[in-house]
């Protein structure tokens, strides 16, 4: 028997009466039933590490939506996610094929070598469907395509070096504009903030790299960093010092990491004693190699703009 997530939750609501749950519990259960008119979402995972999904699942907020579960249950109609979907196999493939009026989220780069068969999200009628084919087919039907993470947005780590699978960004593969929430991984707030704007029917203002201006259009990270202007560190792992001489990419980056921080504002890269690696930039991870060339133990380089 095939049963949808929403039908399952309704069964839970009916069964709750026999369990003696009070009015408050019944209201809580009722509110957990997703609105049938809620935006539909398909989330694909390609060539990557699933770190963007993990980051999203760490979302915590003092106001609604309170956490990732709040987003998925109350705010959207999640048709497909390879990790979070309740369904699997032929039933979930059928749901994907008949999906309409949805937002397509893509995590990970798109391998194009070997006919695209380096990555396959599912099989259809016994045929393995290349990820490249799935992305192209669904992006043509989607109301909006959102790239979650630098791999999907710009190629990222998946496309670095020799790149034997010929991994490319989503935009390169589908040939149309995408909303790029870059980062390795992006902060969960950045993901949710962008999705909320789309769910509300708002136009997301983008910079020249397809990134939301509200997130990436702020001042340079260097200008927001509390270590800016302090004594320069000469070795890695030293807290409380500026790491520009070690190749910190805060001068080029414009993400609000110093303000949002990470893990519910517990820490962020600079506070942990690491230079910014510029993971929101299209050139990442090429930018990350700069601290090996320009600084560190035995390094000759100095940071830009320093004497």
Protein traits:
alpha/beta; two-stranded antiparallel sheet; 13 helices
Description:
The chain has helices at residues 5-18, 23-31, 51-57, 68-75, 89-97, 131-141, 150-154, 170-174, 188-199, 213-216, 221-224, 257-260, 290-294, and strands spanning 40-45, 77-80, 102-107, 110-111, 122-124, 127-129, 144-148, 167-168, 179-181. It has 307 residues and is an alpha/beta fold. The strands form three sheets. The protein has a five-stranded parallel beta sheet, with helices on both faces. It has a two-stranded antiparallel ribbon with strand order 4-8. The protein has a two-stranded antiparallel sheet with strand order 5-6. Helix 3 (51-57) crosses helix 9. Mean pLDDT is 83; it is low at 15-34 and 290-307.
Major sheet details: 5 strands, parallel
| Dominant shape | globular
**Structural class label:** alpha/beta
What Rg do the Cα atoms give?
A: 22 Å
Biggest sheet strand order reads 2-1-3-7-9
Oligomeric state:
single chain
Beta-strand fraction estimate: 5-15%
Poorly predicted runs are 15-34, 290-307
Distance between the termini: 71 Å
**Helix amount:** 25-40%
Short overview:
The protein has 307 residues and is α/β, with parallel strands linked by helices.
Secondary structure elements and their pairing?
Elements: H1 5-18, H2 23-31, E1 40-45, H3 51-57, H4 68-75, E2 77-80, H5 89-97, E3 102-107, E4 110-111, E5 122-124, E6 127-129, H6 131-141, E7 144-148, H7 150-154, E8 167-168, H8 170-174, E9 179-181, H9 188-199, H10 213-216, H11 221-224, H12 257-260, H13 290-294
Parallel strand pairs: 1-2, 1-3, 3-7, 7-9
Antiparallel strand pairs: 4-8, 5-6
Helix pairs in contact: 3-9
């Amino acid at each position: 028997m095939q049963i949808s997530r929403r039908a399952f939750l309704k069964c839970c609501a009916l069964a709750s009466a026999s369990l003696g749950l009070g009015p408050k519990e019944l209201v809580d259960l009722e509110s957990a039933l997703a609105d049938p008119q809620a935006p539909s979402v398909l989330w694909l995972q390609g060539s990557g590490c699933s770190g963007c999904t993990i980051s999203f699942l760490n979302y915590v907020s003092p106001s609604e939506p309170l956490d990732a579960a709040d987003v998925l249950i109350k705010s959207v109609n999640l048709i497909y996610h390879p990790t979070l979907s309740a369904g699997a196999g032929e039933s979930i493939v059928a749901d994907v094929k008949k999906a309409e009026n949805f937002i397509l989220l893509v995590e990970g780069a798109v391998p194009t070598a070997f006919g695209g068969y380096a990555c396959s999200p599912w099989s259809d009628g016994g045929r393995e469907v290349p990820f490249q084919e799935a992305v192209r087919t669904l992006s043509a039907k989607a109301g909006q395509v959102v790239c979650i993470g630098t791999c999907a947005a710009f190629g990222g780590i998946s496309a670095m070096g020799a790149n034997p699978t010929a991994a490319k960004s989503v935009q390169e593969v589908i040939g149309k504009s995408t909303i790029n929430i870059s980062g390795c991984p992006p902060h969960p707030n950045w993901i949710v903030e962008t999705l909320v704007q789309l769910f509300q029917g708002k136009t997301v203002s983008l910079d020249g790299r397809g990134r939301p201006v509200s997130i990436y259009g702020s001042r340079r990270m260097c200008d927001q960093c509390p270590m800016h202007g302090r004594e320069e560190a000469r070795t890695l792992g030293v807290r409380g010092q500026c790491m520009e001489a070690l190749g910190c990419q805060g001068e080029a980056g414009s993400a609000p990491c110093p303000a949002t921080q990470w893990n519910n504002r517990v820490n962020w890269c600079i506070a942990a004693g690491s230079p910014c690696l510029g993971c929101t930039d299209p050139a990442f991870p090429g930018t990350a190699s700069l601290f090996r060339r320009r600084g560190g133990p035995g390094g000759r380089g100095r940071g830009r703009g320093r004497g």
